[in-house]
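Cross-check.
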Amino acid sequence: MINLYLMILETDADKSLFEELYKKYKARMYKCAYSILHNKEDAEDVVHQAFLTIANIFEKFKAFSCHEMDAYIVILIRNTSINLYNKNKRSAERCTEFDEEQIAVDVDYFDKINYEYLVKIISKLPLIYKEVLLLRYVEDFSVKHISKISGISVDGVRKRIERAKKLLKEEIESGEYYGK
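Predicted model, tokenized:
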């Protein structure tokens, strides 16, 4: 991972100094982020983001005194961690509200549909919708896990699931099965 940061820097002296900083602060930064987030992956993401920020402003950063560097790094990690924590918290609250409303509608609506017919309709969906539906309802993956493995945001996964359900419902209502 350090190679990514070093690519941003121009001189060998800057790269050498950055490597020293990386070795010196990485563990402390991770500990600080983990103490706020209580999640390994999120703490790693915050440390990565912090190092990217430092690499991008390295000319200004290397002018800091040792104490200023320590303070800047602590503040950067703490603020980035808190921002991510709050973002995750808001997202979880929206997810809970959304999921509780959707479950009642989905179960009542789609349980009445013939299984083979439902599979046939799903197979006609665009690939991006098929994938999220299969991962969510067949493989029973969480939205967060689908987000990680597909490389799209949690909100993006939710939106795709919502759109896929809408397409399914439209097809069922306009198709040969509806009303039987």
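The chain has nine helices and no strands. The longest helix spans residues 66-110. Passed to J.P. for a second look.
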